[in-house]
Amino acid sequence: MSSNDTRHVQIMIIGSGLSGLGTAIRLSQQGLTDFLVIERGPDVGGTWRDNTYPGAGCDVPSHLYSYSFALNPNWSATFSPQAEIEQYMRDVSQRYGVRDKHIFDCTMTGARWNDEDGRWEVSTSQGSFTADFVVSAAGVLAEPNLPDIKGISSFEGEIFHSARWNHDASLAGKKVAVIGTGSSSVQIVPSIAPEVAHLDVYQRTATWVMPQVKRPYLGLERFAFKRVPGLQRLLRALIYIQRELFVVTQVKYPATGIVLEMIGRLKMRFEIKDPELRRKVMPQHRIGCKRMLVSNKFYGALDRDNVDVVTDGIAEVRAHSIVTDDGTEREVDAIVLATGFHVADSPTYNLYTGRDGRTMSEAADVEGFQMYKGITVADFPNMFFMLGANSGLNYTSLIYIIESQINYLVDTITTMQAKNLRSFEVRVDAQHEYNRRLAPKLAKAVWADGGCTSWFLDKHGNNAALWPDFSYKYRKMVRTFDIEAYDTKAETA
C-alpha cells in the first residue's frame, strides 16, 4: 500500500446495520470522531434494508427493538414491519449526524493486521485504508445460505433467495415452491399463498410455531408514548422482563418447555383441520432447540387447498420442476429460497487476516469458532466483532447485546488512550478459560440435546451462536474493559 493513496482513520467500522450504526453514534457521542463506516449497500439498514420480501417484519416486540437512546413512540403495531424499522434506522442516522461518516456502496475486500505498524490495512472497492481499530459489524444475517442442490443452476424459471427478493417477478397465478420453513418462510408463505396458483412448501424439519400477540397501536396509545414521561421506558422494561423468562425454558430448566409445547400443540390443533397435515408439521424436537417461530397466519396458509407441504428431501431441480427423493416430480414456475444465512461460517471471516497470517475462517477450522466474551479474538489485535461467538440471542432483542458490546468497545478505546497504548490482544489462555467456563452452560441448554440440528451449531457441532444465560448477565460481564485479560503494547515515540 502506498501512503499516497491510503486514507488513515482511528476506527474503521465495517457495515451499517444495527451494530455498525449504533457504534458510530456512540463513538460520536463520546467525542471519538475519527472514525469511518464503510457499507456495501446504498444506505444504512443492513438486514432491514435487504430483506424486503412480502410479509417481512420483526418477531421481537417493537418497543424493545430500538436503541435505548432513541426510543420510537410512533411504531404502528406491537410488532413492526420491515419498512418501518428501515425508516427508523434512516431517521436515527440523520438525527445523530453520522451519515457524513459513511461511505456507501463500498465493499470491503480484505483486512490484514500489520504488526510492525500496529494497525489494520483495509482494502475496499473504493480504495485502501489503514485503521488503528477495526469494528466488524457485518451482521449475522448478512450472507444468504444458498442450498447445494443438484441441477439448481439449470432451473429456467424465477429463482431468488428471500433476502434478495426480486420485486420485478410476479408470482400471481404461478406454481411456486418455497424451500425452507424458518423465520422468513413463516412470513412469506401466508403473504403469497392467496395469489399463487399453487404453492409447494418444502420442509426439512418441522419447527414450533407460537402465537403472536400482534395488533395496531391506537392513536391514543401513540400520543401517550410521546407525552407521558417514562411510559415508553416502563413498557419496554416490562417486555424485556417477559422475554427474559424464555431463558428458564431454554437454558436453566429446559423441562419446563413442555408448557410452551402444549400451547404450540393447541395452536396447531385449532388452526389446522387436516390431521395428515398436522402430522407433517408436528415438531420432533423439544421447543427452543431451533429458533421458535411466531405467526398467526402460517398454519392457516398451509391448510389452504392450493398449498402442499412436502417433507421428502429434494433430489434435484430440473428446468421446470423439482424432483424429490421418492421420485415425485412437481412442476414449478418460480422458486423462493427461504434457506437462511451463513452464521457460524460467515464468508466475511475469510476477509480478516490476523497477526499469525491466518484468516478468521482458517483459525475456526482448526479450533472451532471461539471468541472472548463474543467480542475479541486471540491473534486479531485491535479488533472488535459485534455479535460474535456466543453473544447472540434467540428470544429477545439483539439490540440489548449490541449496546452492551458497544459499552465494552468504547471503554476499551478510551482506556487505551488514557494509558497511551497502541494495541491490545486477548491472551489465548484467557480466551480458552472463558470458553471453558461457558461450556457447561451450553451443554445444559436445550440447543445441545433437544433433538435437532440448527444454524446455532457450527460444523464441529458446537453452539457458536447463542449466549447461554440471562442477557443482563452478559451486559454486566462486558460493562468495562478487563485489561488484565489482554496483552498490550505501548505507543512508541
TrEMBL record:
Annotated protein name in UniProt: Flavin-containing monooxygenase
Lineage: Bacteria, Bacillati, Actinomycetota, Actinomycetes, Mycobacteriales
InterPro entries for the chain: FAD-bind_Monooxygenase_sf (IPR051209), FAD/NAD-bd_sf (IPR036188)
Molecular functions (GO terms): monooxygenase activity
UniProt entry tagged with the keyword RNA-binding: no
Entry EC number(s): 1.14.13.-
Keyword Oxidoreductase (UniProt): yes
Keywords: Monooxygenase, Oxidoreductase
Top EC class for this record: oxidoreductase
